[in-house]
Design goal:
Layout (H helix, E strand, L loop, with lengths): L1 E4 L6 E2 L5 H4 L6 E4 L2 H6 L3 E2 L5 H20 L2 E4 L4 E4 L4 E6 L6 E6 L15 E3 L7 H17 L21 H34 L5
Parallel strand pairs: 2-4
Antiparallel strand pairs: 1-3, 5-6, 6-7, 7-8, 8-9
Helix pairs in contact: 3-4
Length: 208
Amino acid sequence: MFYYSTISRKKIIHHMSCPAADRIRDENIECFETLQEAYGEGYRLCRHCSLLARQYRKGESDSCTYSQEKGIAFFYTDRALVVTTSFSKWKIVPSEDGLRLQLYHQNTHRSAHDWESLIPGYHLQNAKRDTIQGYLEYIAEHDDYRLRNPVQTNPKTKKKDSTPPKKGTRRYKKQQRREEIRTKKYSIRRTLDLIDGLHCQKTGLRPA
């Protein structure tokens, strides 16, 4: 649960244990069940309550040093730590209850399940770390693995070879058969058009 003051214009939510929540009068206090619900209404998590904000302030220097060594870029927002590498893009965000951090990985292709994700265009990564630094290390390991083990292209999705086929090969024979069929169809169509034209001349009708 996340609590807020109905008379405050700051649109900040708090855990019940937050000192700021204690200062809200009972007649002015309301709550959201989840962070997603609060975000949808334009609220943001108190920096004292936010695990992400606390960890970012505490380890910013170490995270910057590590990221520079690994070629990782990141920037902090109230809702996420956005991480970008030469291979991928990520978001480290608080969980729905705000008690732990989760890692989301940007989708490389559209999926029918995209709408189920709390972050559009991203999917929840099957990785659990307790700190931002732990997730940065996971991202570096993930990219290193992808570099050593590139994703293989499905043979069915490979682009067709645009080079002319060599004479005598199966590909050449198939092409010749396709050309013969195409020529026959064109000849038949041309003959039918001529017949229609002659018929129209005799009857005075316009061709269809």
